[in-house]
Amino acid sequence: MDVSHILDPLNDAQRRAVTTPPGPVLVLAGAGSGKTRVLTHRIGWLVQAEGISPLQILAVTFTNKASREMRGRIEELLNFPTGGMWMGTFHGICHRLLRMHYQEAGLPETFEIIDSDDQYRLIRRILGELDLDEAYWPPRQLQWAINQHKEEARRAHHLPASDDYHQQTLYRVYASYEEFCQRLGLVDFAEILLRTLELFKNNQTIRETWQKRFRHVLVDEFQDTNTIQYQWLRLLSASSRNLFAVGDDDQSIYGWRGARVENLLTFEKDYPGAEIVRLEQNYRSSGHILAAANAVIARNEDRMGKELWTEAADGNLIRLYGASNEIDEAQFVVGTIESWVEQGNRRDSVAILYRSNAQSRVFEEQLLSAAMPYRVYGGLRFFERAEIKDALGYMRLISNHDSDPSFERIVNLPPRGIGNRTLEKIREYSRTQQISMWQAASQVISQELLPARAAGAVGAFLKLISEMTAQTEDNSLEDLTDHVLNTSGLLEHYRKEKSERAQGRVENLEELVSAARNFIPAETDDNELDLLSLFLANAALEAGEGQAEEWEDCVQLMSLHSAKGLEFPLVFLCGMEEGLFPHQRSLEEPGRLEEERRLCYVGMTRAMEQLYLCYAEIRRLYGKDHYTQGSRFLTEVPTANIEEIRSSAISRPLQRGGLRKEEKNSNELQPGKQVRHEKFGEGMVVTLEGQGEHTRVQIHFSEVGTKWIIPAYASLEMI
DNA sequence: GTGTAGGTGGTTTTT
DNA sequence: CCACCTACAC
Q1: Which residues, 6+ apart, have CB-to-CB distance to A395 below 8 Å?
Q2: Is the link from the previous residue into A582 a cis peptide, with omega within 30 of 0?
Q3: Which end of chain A is more exposed for a tag (fewer CB within 10 A), N or C?
Q4: Is residue A151 part of a domain?
Q5: Distance in angstroms: CA A326, C1' B13
Q6: A377 and A387 in one domain?
């Protein structure tokens, strides 16, 4: 077969990656080096040159968007539909496997996926049942801790026994949460992955079946895999060893969410003889931008090592704007965009990037007064909106009466006279009898445990749902949705509200009907689920675009994290100030500064033609003005690649190297120095991080091991 | 059941 | 400073 269409568009490194004979391959793909192309062409190569059946290929991504894009590009390349090929997100694929093997995985057939909002509510309910005070045990933190453990494949019973009351409480909450989910057939996001991993670990038949089925496994954004995901990938490819992983350690920015760059670093060890390919030619940015990004990321110690190069010209210098305050910053940015647009450029060729979402406000205000259309990324997605979740709550309850999260959500929405007292009784009954809220409700009524009025209200609710279930049995998904919205009174409820917000809610609900109309399930292999369940699972696993609005030509505002994977001719990286970027909270935790720097690298490498770096000398934060210090990342950009634009107001030139000088003077502490700590005894300085009073020192103590110390708080004595 | 005063917390986010 | 949540009063 002629494979020139697969190989011709590739450079040497890309071609090497694509044509490597089956076996473990690790592709270190720098920003803008054509990683998606390598992935899709690798699949094309396997199919057309190696003669491998598409059915034997599994391609895993992190986001639905990436998966869709890959599918589209493969179909384009190979010119055939890829329906039979398994391609999707970790969660999507694992969900599919769990549906097929629900019994072996120990789940009820009707198991339901809960999102983090549902999870949060559930944890609060458990806190209530355990009689724990939320003020002492913040549900968010417990949720975070539980997910953290799950992502490391640790179940409650794996936690070490502890004398610490805090640990014991965490254990109690985690264990009850697990029990609760198990009893009700609820599966959270991490559970989808963990269950699948355990299924593969414990069930040899299933493991071997899928190992044989997927002879070739490809993973995108490998640096973002967490412990469970990598363990599962290893299990899946244990017999074939055909794992093709593409990633970039320099773009690992989700460590705080459980991602383990180490997976990249240990790939070689786990797969001896693996082919390692570096993609270093960049096709995106002009020379100055690339040189600057290289220089910044070079400051990181923990790297596999890579240096991007380009055939493109140097292009424009990066521009540095020191604003007097955040309003000045925004005005400068918007003014610059105005002239960019006047020069005939599109507005959507521009991105305003920032470290934290709160920064978008000032830009929005300025864009608004300049009548410049814009779009802010982030915020709630379609299926996460309250009114949509309400409607889905009804549909879930119809689909499965025992869905407690749904029951709790809609039992009194719209208000139908079922108050907290009544609900508490039902909850209590459900807890003592170990039955679902639905069952508890009906038993509480038949046993006449409720006052007449409440009993009537609850009875009416149960009847409503039962009737809806009966009436919608043979309906199409669209009719069902429509029916639910109208007979539940939900639509009416929001229509009656006359706030602007409610108006949008009604529109969203109407949008849900058309989402139901247009819903086409991905072809499932052998397992058959009804359309409604598929729709509900899809809603949980694919929350939808940020805004389902039309593609207008508008300026793009987003956090640096959301910008990963995107590119724009003109990019503004704003709020480049110590404490904001790198963020204060990252300076306080070891190892996180390097992740902040990677974030900076990601931001810079989004720019194709022109990059602006901005900071404000005074920034109003939480109602208070703060004098800022330019981000250390600014000083890490070589002077040859950047030109400084003064703020019209005050401004003095950014003090180059100022930070570095301070670091040297204020710290006698240097790696290698011997110190004494009043509690931990003697040790040696391993690493230093942060400046001035934020300095953190990693010290290897001879008696207690390695610790992070903040000299500002704990006095260290030099030996 | 709805509205409002008072309190609190305020990186980053996909699934 | 502001957005969100909770508690409490009508």
Answers
A1: A480, A481, A484, A532, A535, A536
A2: yes
A3: N
A4: yes
A5: 25
A6: no
CA of A430 to C1' of C8 (A): 28
CA of A146 to C1' of C8 (A): 33
Structural domain including A139 reads 112-184
Q: Give the span between the Cα atoms of A328 and A615, in whole angstroms.
A: 10
A65 Cβ nearer than 7 Å to chain B strand: yes
Which CATH number goes with the domain that contains A53?
3.40.50.300
- Pairing state between β A275-279 and A624-627: unpaired
Strand C footprint nucleotides (protein C-beta < 7 Å): 1-3
Identify whether A654 is part of a domain.
no
Question: Taking the model in full, what pTM does it have?
Answer: 0.87
Which is the catalytic residue, given A112, A151, A191, A220? A220
- 3-state SS, residue A248: coil
CA atoms within 13 A on the CB side of A332: 25
Looking up tokens 């920003």 gives: A31
A290-327 pLDDT, tens digit per residue, is 999 999 999 999 899 899 999 999 999 999 999 999 99
* Tens-place pLDDT, residues A691-706: 555 566 766 565 665 6
Q: Give residue numbers, 167 to 196 of A, with CB < 7 Å from strand B.
A: 189-190
CATH number, position A457:
1.10.486.10
Pairing outcome for strands A716-718 and A705-709: unpaired
- Rounded to whole angstroms, what are the CA distances from A373 to A199, A327, A364, A504? 50, 18, 9, 19
Is A150 annotated as catalytic? no
Torsion of Cα atoms, A556 then A561 then A562 then A566, to 10° = 80
- Catalytic annotation on A251? yes
A136 C-beta less than 7 Å away from strand C = no
Which residue would you say has higher pLDDT here, A84 or A524? A84
| Placement of tokens 């254990």 in the chain | A171
Catalytic residue among A40, A82, A143, A251: A251
A677 membership: H or E segment, kind and range: strand A674-677
For A523-573, how does the pLDDT look when each residue is reduced to its tens digit (9 = 90+)? 655 556 788 999 999 999 988 765 445 568 999 999 999 999 999 999 999
Q: Are A141 and A221 part of one and the same domain?
A: no
- Catalytic: A606? yes
Mean pLDDT of chain A: 88
Is A517 in the same domain as A431? yes
Check whether residue A453 has its CB closer than 7 Å to nucleic acid strand B. no
Q: Tell me how far apart the alpha carbons of residues A397 and A383 are, in angstroms, rounded to a whole number.
A: 17
CA of A420 to C1' of B1 (A): 12
Q: Tell me the average pLDDT across A489-506.
A: 81
Based on the fold, state whether residues A418 and A520 are members of the same structural domain: yes
